[in-house]
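This week, work through this protein record:
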Amino acid sequence: MIQFPSWKNWNYALLSRVWVFILLLGIVAVMILSGLFRFVFSRPVSAEIPEGKGRTAAERIIQINILNGAGENKIARKAMDYFRARGFDVVEVNNFDGIVARSYVIDRVGDTASSREVAYALGVPDSLIESDVDSSLYLRCSVVLGKNYRTLKPFK
């Protein structure tokens, strides 16, 4: 004689499969929404100098230097690799005069659009952009890495 599982056991088995299906469906939905959010709301980094901001035909890419003010070895090199991978022209990597607590960006030519792009790429707010115009440096911005460098995009 064929024995069928009791209604009670069959009901629990079906119910547990339905819950597993709903859970998996929810995980997939969250993954799709997070990918969509990153694609739609997270703007890409652009290393190009905006039109009309002191840009000549030869100047298309933002030139920066990176200064290590954290007092730890090889972090400026890691930041250099990060910025170069995103299209920035890193012309110098050096040590900063002293140790600083917070990382920031220095605008060297008065081009706030380029400075904001560098700050966005670094992962610091626009409030951490300082202006110190020095046209003898032949670059748009300086990035100063501070003790908080682990919180920045190149180090995540």
The first helix runs from residue 7 to 41. The helical segments are 7-41, 75-85, 112-122. DSSP finds three helices and five strands in the chain.
